[in-house]
Amino acid sequence: MGLVIVGASALGRSALGIARAQRRSDVLGVVDDRPLTTSNIDGALFLGSIEVLSSLFERTDQVEVVIAIGDPRTRSQVYDRIIGSLPGIRLATLLHPQATLLGDVTIGDGCIVFPGVVLGPGSDVGRASVINANGTVGAGARLGEFVSMAPAANVGSDSVLGKGVYLGMGAAIAQQTRVGDWCTVGALSFVRQDAPAGAVVVGIPARISERRT
What are 119-128's pLDDT values in tens digits? Predict the structure, then answer.
């Protein structure tokens, strides 16, 4: 099996570090649509644009990708693009050895889980989500696909985050709270009431400052 990291920014470099912490020796390299002037990213080969995946997959179907792009909407678009052209390609899940799983936890394909993360019993993390360093997900909480949690963000027990939710650094979601699809929660904000889809919520307690489609 060979692993390709999609994204050469800070998250991509962190994903590479997590893969190494997992002692994966099969990293083929990194792809990114931005033209880069380097052929080496933290010791991994820069393979070129995302289109390179097609030629890799033609040579061997034993290829896994992880989409290390911080913005949830962009990550979902790149996911659709890759899966649409290469439906048989696998999504790798990167789980740092210093993350803690408390009991029965479900982690979807393509997730990136950083060190210091704590996932409570019965929690469910959706496909291609990112939980950054020292984030916590309480017991029974459910995260939709393409969720992004910045460092030290916290989700209370039995809460639900919809598809593509973004939690800023240090944001907190009270227990049994629902946050709708594609919501953005500002850094250090505390959400104690349900937030509708597409809302931008900020403050303590968090209030809606903007609605997006």
Answer: 999 999 999 9
Alpha-carbon dihedral of residues 162, 133, 16, 7, nearest 10 degrees?
40
Q: Partners of 82 in the beta sheet?
A: none
Phi then psi dihedrals of residue 33, to 5 deg: -75, -15
Taking a C-beta distance cutoff of 8 angstroms, is the pair 199, 211 a contact? yes
End-to-end CA distance of the chain: 39
Residue 15 three-state SS: helix
- Answer yes or no: are the C-beta atoms of 41 and 13 closer than 8 Å: yes
Domains observed in the chain: 2-91 (3.40.50.20), 94-205 (2.160.10.10)
Average pLDDT over residues 107-130: 98
Q: Please tell me whether the overall predicted TM-score, pTM, comes out greater than 0.90 for this model.
A: yes
Distance CA 130, CA 125 (A): 9
pLDDT tens, residue by residue, 44-79: 999 999 999 988 887 776 889 999 999 999 999 999
